[in-house]
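// run 5 | inverse folding | seed 20
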């Protein structure tokens, strides 16, 4: 194509775009419709973008249906029960436990869910938005008083519920992002270790996404990455705590140790995570 022909082609394309802009139906639909119509007609829309939208999730959940309440012996009702047990005519039984999320896989409820949405164009992360939430903590309790030769004379049961309010964070700069959680049980009387985990990600020059994670040994932790609404890293469990003993004195000791030990680390790469 010579220079004269090239100028003629450019003029024709510009005229096509202008004609589309002046069409009432397209103009009423806004600038994005102009770009789409121009693309269909063979003309190039002005200012086309190659950015992709990403959603990254970091999630923690208790896979058990219930777990031990390590403070059961400290609860006021239990102390009253101990006094009753010291009398010769009554027997007092008190029980307390926490509800779990009751699923081994990724889908379902959670203790903490950290979400980061952003756009990436192969050079830098922009348009970052943060979301997520905390699952409500439930502590179920019950007690009964029995008298020899008479049987049960009193009983009660109930549930305490409260939702954690902290803490999670999501940051991004350049080609990298970080998601973290550090959330404690909001119903404890004394102190409890946080649920801790961190996920970092970095895009390289070839469009691959390298991910690194560091989590507690309890509860279960998982990650997920989507691009333009579809999974490029399907929901993946990076710490499976479904086999952990979570009841009784042994369970209380094991859960405390595992929540205090952020020793689960690993990494993975999503090849071709960015494609213009």
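// decoded
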């Amino acid at each position: 194509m010579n220079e004269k022909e090239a100028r003629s082609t450019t003029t024709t394309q510009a005229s096509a775009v202008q004609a589309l802009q002046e069409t009432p139906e397209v103009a009423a639909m806004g600038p994005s419709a102009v770009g789409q119509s121009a693309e269909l007609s063979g003309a190039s829309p002005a200012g086309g973008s190659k950015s992709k939208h990403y959603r990254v999730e970091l999630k923690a959940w208790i896979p058990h249906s219930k777990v031990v309440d390590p403070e059961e012996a400290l609860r006021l009702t239990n102390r009253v029960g101990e006094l009753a047990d010291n009398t010769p005519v009554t027997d007092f039984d008190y029980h307390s436990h926490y509800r779990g999320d009751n699923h081994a896989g990724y889908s379902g409820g959670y203790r903490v869910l950290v979400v980061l949405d952003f756009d990436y164009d192969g050079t830098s992360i922009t348009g970052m938005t943060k979301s997520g939430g905390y699952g409500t903590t439930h502590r179920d309790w019950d007690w009964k008083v029995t008298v020899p030769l008479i049987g049960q004379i009193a009983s009660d049961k109930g549930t305490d519920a409260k939702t954690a309010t902290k803490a999670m964070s999501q940051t991004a700069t350049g080609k990298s992002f970080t998601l973290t959680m550090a959330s404690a049980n909001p119903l404890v009387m004394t102190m409890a270790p946080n649920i801790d985990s961190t996920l970092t990600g970095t895009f390289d020059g070839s469009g691959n996404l390298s991910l690194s994670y560091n989590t507690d040994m309890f509860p279960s932790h998982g990650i997920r990455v989507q691009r333009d609404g579809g999974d490029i890293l399907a929901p993946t469990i990076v710490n499976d705590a479904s086999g952990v003993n979570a009841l009784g004195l042994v369970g209380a000791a094991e859960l405390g140790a595992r929540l205090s030990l952020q020793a689960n680390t690993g990494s993975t790469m999503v090849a071709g995570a960015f494609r213009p």
